[in-house]
């Protein structure tokens, strides 16, 4: 897949160019943004776009079915949720590490959503809002059985599906956050979900959450 990025800040453009050098990538000019990148993915440096032009550009991307990710210098939960709702496939920090940037690209190309952990947690809570705890327990058990999860993975999943953070899960089960991350990685791998949001959506699509 083709990859393009846009930033008017020389240090950001230089850094992205270096981190993405192993991909077929090119830096886009302002005039090219309106045309999009056919069949490709655009990393858009939000702070390089004038505030009064952002909405129009994002709407244009959506109308063209352009795959795009928003990179912000100072990510904020409300902004991230709004942009994801407007069609962005990812929302992350402009200065994320190279390894995380690679994970972001792999996640988006796989068809899943990437966002900062705090934005993901807020998205999960919104998706689960209004679903009684009894139903959440039932749908969690069904997902676990279908994916052949271990007993501990099922326990982690039960708490995760309530919208809990890794820290909250670790406290509840009296294990380390590192162990929680390992269990969540195993759960996502076994279920085929790319992230927590995809896991919830998967459950909804299978009519596990009603």
UniProtKB/TrEMBL annotation:
List GO BP terms, alphabetically.
Answer: regulation of DNA-templated transcription
Alphabetical keyword list: DNA-binding
List the Gene3D superfamilies hit by this protein, alphabetically. 3.40.50.2300
* Listed Pfam families: GerE
- Mind listing the GO molecular function terms for this protein? DNA binding
HTH luxR-type domain residues: 142-207
User: Per its UniProt record, what InterPro entries does this chain match?
Assistant: Sig_transdc_resp-reg_C-effctor, Tscrpt_reg_LuxR_C, WalR-like
Matching PANTHER family, A to Z?
A: NITRATE_NITRITE RESPONSE REGULATOR PROTEIN NARL, TWO-COMPONENT RESPONSE REGULATOR
Q: What is this protein called?
A: HTH luxR-type domain-containing protein
């Amino acid at each position: 897949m083709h990859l393009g990025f846009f930033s008017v800040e020389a240090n950001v453009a230089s850094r992205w160019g270096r981190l993405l050098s192993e991909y077929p990538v090119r830096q886009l000019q302002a005039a090219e943004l309106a045309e999009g990148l056919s069949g490709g993915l655009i990393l858009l440096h939000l702070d390089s776009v004038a505030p009064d032009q952002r909405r129009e550009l994002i709407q244009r991307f959506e109308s063209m079915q352009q795959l795009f990710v928003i990179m912000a210098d100072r990510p904020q939960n409300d902004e991230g949720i709004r942009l994801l709702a407007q069609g962005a496939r990812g929302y992350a920090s402009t200065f994320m590490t190279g390894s995380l940037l690679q994970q972001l690209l792999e996640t988006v190309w796989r068809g899943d959503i990437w966002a900062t952990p705090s934005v993901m947690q807020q998205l999960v809570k919104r998706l689960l809002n209004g679903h009684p705890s009894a139903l959440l327990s039932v749908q969690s058990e069904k997902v676990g059985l279908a994916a052949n999860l271990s007993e501990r993975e099922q326990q982690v999943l039960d708490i995760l599906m309530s919208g809990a953070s890794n820290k909250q899960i670790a406290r509840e089960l009296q294990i380390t956050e590192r162990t929680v991350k390992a269990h969540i990685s195993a759960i996502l791998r076994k279920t085929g979900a790319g992230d927590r949001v995809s896991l919830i959506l998967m459950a909804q699509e299978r009519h596990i959450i009603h």
